[in-house]
């Protein structure tokens, strides 16, 4: 037995021990998630109810979803909602992270205050926003009338409801982006700023050629996470508008919920969910490739 072989045996035993310790948890995770996933796949190709699978219909549920106007309307709003949630919260979070430098007075106190929209439970935040703008006599509609803008129904008008829901998503999501950006900015060495300043680079040049490239990997990761959060975000929309008015704020996850649990069509609802999952996987793969490219640079 060679020396190299003797070194490999302890390493193999160490890996085997770690695998044995992790195996029960892995088996439990597979057991908990495998059955619901398998049952969902079965339901998506059947035309039954929440209790019984019903007759086999193949891909008819997917065809019905793809040919329905509700699906494409929900897809459009989901894209708008996700884009606003990802880039809006990133822009705001990045701007705040840039301002909260180590020499910023009261930095820790401001960080705690800025984290409140993310820390407070979504139900409390949604109720607060409903109190501010949901009814005709709420605070913001009263201010709008006082300014001569008439009766502005923020959640009663389809366009205003879409804008309100997107702004609400940015409001509750920017603290997460701010923390991600702040952590990424910590990796930017101070001597890079000093060297660029000596070369005559201004704030914009430093932001464009130093900060953005160095934080690109963290940015792409935060975009992936926030995109997943937005697409799967049910309470933000449902607590504010329940998908209305006139289905203007009905996202794919809300449409899947309505179809499955209110219309009692689980096959079609699960088909919507699986199509939504396929889109998310595609988007994640694209962004992961961008992460790999940024790592090679």
From TrEMBL:
Gene3D superfamilies: MetI-like
Entry-linked InterPro entries: MetI-like, MetI-like_sf
TM region positions: 21-42, 76-100, 112-132, 152-172, 220-241, 261-288
Keywords from the UniProt entry: Cell membrane, Membrane, Transmembrane, Transmembrane helix, Transport
Keyword flag Protein transport: no
Pfam families the UniProt entry points to: BPD_transp_1
All residue ranges annotated as the ABC transmembrane type-1 domain in the record: 75-287
Membrane topology recorded in Swiss-Prot or TrEMBL: Multi-pass membrane protein
Gene Ontology biological process terms in this record: transmembrane transport
A single Gene Ontology CC term: plasma membrane
Localization per record: Cell membrane
Broad class of the protein's primary localization: membrane
Family statement drawn from the similarity comment of this UniProt entry: Belongs to the binding-protein-dependent transport system permease family.
Descriptive protein name: Sugar ABC transporter permease
